[in-house]
Amino acid sequence: MSSNSFGKLLTVTTFGESHGPAIGCVIDGCPPGLEIAPEEFAHDLQRRATGKSRHTSARREADEVEILSGVYEGRTTGTPLALLIRNTDQRSKDYSNIAAQFRPGHADYSYWQKYGIRDPRGGGRSSARETTMRVAAGVIAKKWLRQRYGVTVRGYLSQLGAITPAGFDWSAVEDNPFFWPDAAQVPELEAYMDALRKSGDSVGARVDVVADGVPPGWGEPIYGKLDGEIAAALMSINAVKGVEIGDGFASVVQKGTEHRDLITPAGFQSNHAGGILGGIATGQQIVASMALKPTSSLRLPGATMDVEGNAVEVVTTGRHDPCVGIRATPIAEAMLALVLMDQALRHRAQCGDVGVVAPRIPGSLDG
Amino acid sequence: MSSNSFGKLLTVTTFGESHGPAIGCVIDGCPPGLEIAPEEFAHDLQRRATGKSRHTSARREADEVEILSGVYEGRTTGTPLALLIRNTDQRSKDYSNIAAQFRPGHADYSYWQKYGIRDPRGGGRSSARETTMRVAAGVIAKKWLRQRYGVTVRGYLSQLGAITPAGFDWSAVEDNPFFWPDAAQVPELEAYMDALRKSGDSVGARVDVVADGVPPGWGEPIYGKLDGEIAAALMSINAVKGVEIGDGFASVVQKGTEHRDLITPAGFQSNHAGGILGGIATGQQIVASMALKPTSSLRLPGATMDVEGNAVEVVTTGRHDPCVGIRATPIAEAMLALVLMDQALRHRAQCGDVGVVAPRIPGSLDG
Amino acid sequence: MSSNSFGKLLTVTTFGESHGPAIGCVIDGCPPGLEIAPEEFAHDLQRRATGKSRHTSARREADEVEILSGVYEGRTTGTPLALLIRNTDQRSKDYSNIAAQFRPGHADYSYWQKYGIRDPRGGGRSSARETTMRVAAGVIAKKWLRQRYGVTVRGYLSQLGAITPAGFDWSAVEDNPFFWPDAAQVPELEAYMDALRKSGDSVGARVDVVADGVPPGWGEPIYGKLDGEIAAALMSINAVKGVEIGDGFASVVQKGTEHRDLITPAGFQSNHAGGILGGIATGQQIVASMALKPTSSLRLPGATMDVEGNAVEVVTTGRHDPCVGIRATPIAEAMLALVLMDQALRHRAQCGDVGVVAPRIPGSLDG
Amino acid sequence: MSSNSFGKLLTVTTFGESHGPAIGCVIDGCPPGLEIAPEEFAHDLQRRATGKSRHTSARREADEVEILSGVYEGRTTGTPLALLIRNTDQRSKDYSNIAAQFRPGHADYSYWQKYGIRDPRGGGRSSARETTMRVAAGVIAKKWLRQRYGVTVRGYLSQLGAITPAGFDWSAVEDNPFFWPDAAQVPELEAYMDALRKSGDSVGARVDVVADGVPPGWGEPIYGKLDGEIAAALMSINAVKGVEIGDGFASVVQKGTEHRDLITPAGFQSNHAGGILGGIATGQQIVASMALKPTSSLRLPGATMDVEGNAVEVVTTGRHDPCVGIRATPIAEAMLALVLMDQALRHRAQCGDVGVVAPRIPGSLDG
């Protein structure tokens, strides 16, 4: 019921502020017997971390995960896993000058109106620092999905400002700091980001995330729809302003004969639906996409109000990504993985763990 | 926890199949003392109903709401409201020939893979018939929001295939069967729909929904974000494939200086955020948009598979809207109203009912 | 989240007032494929019904269950089952004189303080009429538990005022109107109840309920303990004031060497624990007991206050059981069955459906 | 939804094993602005701690609480409070010899059957060590209830084996290591415990807990009843086997004329109900009682089985309380306080924060 908890059966509760003593999470409902070691979190946390390249914030976060509970002799015991990361790089002085102002585009004003009090250090709870724990929890979900069902979850940056991929190659994605699927465009992206940083401005982005191998039948009807939960999961990521499943907004101008995915015993003929019909997986690739707004923290001055109601000008002098979308890829993967694992557990609760009903339609011909 | 329930404190549980004996809902958590009469549901149910005009399905649904509980002498008592609508127009023969086939673009196959059994009559539980009860529940939420906080929720069709509004006038929306905000375009829409119906094809649409008067502070951080819950709520509506808050996917190509809504003591200078920052309302207009796919039930034949695994051709002969998006407007309003009322109750649980903190930023100049 | 809903994965939501148009429930999360017909509810509803004998209230409730949804061709489809019972015997005149008074021992005053409004007709929502739907939902749970796992749930009256069973025979329980396990005592009970009715007074009772065949492992730690949920389930029944698991309050005076159930490869040596250790089933018989207070509605006058704050005397002239505990047996069975089915689904969600780990301790030698 | 979480709006999630690196909790939903400092936890943690006197376990737990999040400049911010206690006194060697055996009366066997794996160090998750975090969370709830509503929560040991209080004086309770309400009996209790310890055996106990000042109206009907939630809360405490509200099991032999609490404008005439009718507070003192079984860990040998299925004899050599009930008092207080705070938040969500309706019945004359 807590709004800092995610998931019905695999429940992840996160806590912590950007510049408090620590951030952490409690993961409950994980099946027993899963092997997990503290060092397994490093890869995805590094992918998410600022400081990965000069194209994201220079801030360095050590992000050492300590497992506080739920693991015995290297395996999950079925009791809650608690993960803790100490905040080592707090530099609260960067933010002290804005404690009395509402930064435009930030949650400063809305938090203050809600609670009448706010932690201004680094954005407090509203900082994207919180997503570190989502990525950590996602490591558990990805591993279990892969081991138990052969499901894989991957993502990539599908748009940076107005730039879109010219080609597509999964193997390129992890070889550049942009999670970009076309290696040939990387110099162009670097030049774009350098110019953007010099200008002091920022830009939006789009991230696509897909899951392969999801068995038909995962998901639930009505208010527990797989696509509904993916939408909530992605929209809950900082800076996200839009979510699509399959063809998304492109469906608006499509005809029914274009959109509907015809079926043959050899497989679906297309995947406009993004692998979900009626809220339940069809067995095709799950495809989701999200839009991220440009960073609001800019060193270009902007008008705002202070807590006394006076007009003031705000300039953000700290370290900030000119495009928060770049490092959102592993966060989106984590959220999709958490939704899928939760739905997998819910599915076997109600329907057992018997696998699919015959006849089964093979995955679509195109993915 | 039930996936047929929506909301944490205002909890709406719906039940019923398209061609079963009845559909209904249980609304729990409604504050006591709200005046409500059975006839108050008629207006929005009529707006949602097929048969409103020749541009939606000819099927006529009487949709008489019976209040079974929770009301005494015309006022809510604080105990669960149960609403019931008998299904009077079932014509199950329209669907009998497709019981053994999986209609492309429908939930037939995914439900069958999940449950190993499905109710083929009119789509069973996956039919948009279920949304009738959302609209009914939304009537309660709209009324309470308006009476208690002066919040209004309205929607309109913002795109029909490739057609977009040339002008905008709220007063036009309720005066045409398309919920279209420019009266001058209505003949064009009628001609478009007539041609579409003749062709046997269907088309997608976009619906926008807004809330005015939402106090700053409603909403919750992280996984209970107001925008995250709106996304889930809209994505849970049949045929929806995408959701946007504020500028949505347009944010991808925006610069930070364009997107961030500057603040002056006289008000926000713009509303690119759609009234939500950090998951919490800013006091500006809440703006959301959703994409609906074209109807998949077509009288144009399409390839599919039957339950034996054989390739077959499917033709849908029943009554169907060539654009389901048209009547989705009141459904989107209902879902937004339900999210807001639930968040309002949650807000006063944690933070009391004290209203806003000074200084308050007036609503944006442009909305 | 609704307080009118019970269970996490098998979720039962009830609605309706004693003298409103109808009572009903929505059962969500039931596995698909379970055969169920409307007439299957009759047996347990009859067991619960007033009018079973002269020893409970003379009020006759037809209690015809209509299945509104969730069943297709006689089997559950995995979507919500809605059950409806029309209230046919309302006689609201019996209660009209007490609308302005707070009956001692009833929820009149507490409901009124909570909501500022209450439905006085027959106790409204606080009437034991609501438990009819628990019994109906329990029919589903009992059947599934028996078919899927061989689990049986049974109960009996274990104390009526100061009278306790002299002997114990399960086969006697269903053959007398008291659910009493010793047939020889039935005349004594009848005489006692006749005298009680003549006196105008009422008396308390105790009901025991047991489950056989529960696999070791069902249940969850900490706040989802099987015994914790049984306690909440039984305490939620009208008039219940105490709950015990296994030896219950007798444990207070026991020594550790007495209480701990020793184990041999041939089985547990005793069952003081009532089949639950650490919140999780041991595989022994689950044993719970509950105390019910005497009926508060009496034709003997009692002091109270009216809604204006004046001292008044109240006399209840309607039909009332002099011992509500007698017909509580099927209600207790239903609640225990609902808890067990919910925990069974939760167990297979997290731990799969693989059955027990070797070595398994056989059920206790004494039950 | 997590079974390691407690409460709907004030949600406490605990984690940690007895001999793991740490135990902790996340408290979500706390209203903003509550002053709280790490040292405020010390008093109740000390009351709960083993080592308080020679009559409970000699194990010394430092139990330094670190606040990891949710507090800024000494006040709660409305975001999750995370509390952490490092386990400093682990001595896992005490338990190594029982890793392969199932201790009678412990959760060893049931956990192993559930999960197929268990953490044997000090009982792992099933240890009463977990209740430390309940007490810590209860400190928050007690403080908020007292400051916001003037509600106080207190408890005492009401039975030790066969010994019951001869007199009653609240002021005595905190002045002896037994939480006993009659100072004159303390020497008798000490002698009894010394003899018990020498014998190697253990004994059960009863704890009573009461809340004063609870406004009428807190609580919810049906499955969210205040008494139902108290029952679940108390039964979830280690070793608890029974729960009573008000007269509890004594109600079984009472007549209706005895039990019903008559009302006069000057107040209730008695409080057999324990302050709750229909699941909702009446404004009288809330009274609950719980039975605790005797400690199962004994140095007197007992028969059991090992994980290979062999008959073995178990002797527990570690430090254990001969009566776990003695230190259960602050745990029971914490659970009652958490239930009340959660219900208080739920009440103001649905019904606002307006206080009581006139006329109000004063608290009962006897408490």
TrEMBL record, chains A, B, C, D:
UniProt xrefs under CDD domains: Chorismate_synthase
EC class: lyase
Binding site for FMN: 125-127, 238-239, 278, 293-297, 319
PROSITE patterns membership: CHORISMATE_SYNTHASE_1, CHORISMATE_SYNTHASE_2, CHORISMATE_SYNTHASE_3
InterPro entries recorded: Chorismate_synth, Chorismate_synth_AroC_sf, Chorismate_synthase_CS
Pfam families tied to this protein: Chorismate_synt
Catalysis: reaction(s): 5-O-(1-carboxyvinyl)-3-phosphoshikimate = chorismate + phosphate
EC number: 4.2.3.5
Entry binding sites for NADP(+): 48, 54
Residues forming coiled coils: none
Cofactor: FMNH2
Cofactor-binding details, from the entry: Reduced FMN (FMNH(2)).
GO molecular function: chorismate synthase activity
UniProt KW keywords: Amino-acid biosynthesis, Aromatic amino acid biosynthesis, FAD, Flavoprotein, FMN, Lyase, NADP
This protein's pathway: Metabolic intermediate biosynthesis; chorismate biosynthesis; chorismate from D-erythrose 4-phosphate and phosphoenolpyruvate: step 7/7
HAMAP family: Chorismate_synth (MF_00300)
Reported function: This reaction introduces a second double bond into the aromatic ring system.
Database matches in PANTHER family: CHORISMATE SYNTHASE
Protein family: Belongs to the chorismate synthase family.
Subunit-level organization: Homotetramer.
Protein name: Chorismate synthase
Source organism per UniProt: Stenotrophomonas nitritireducens
Gene designation: aroC
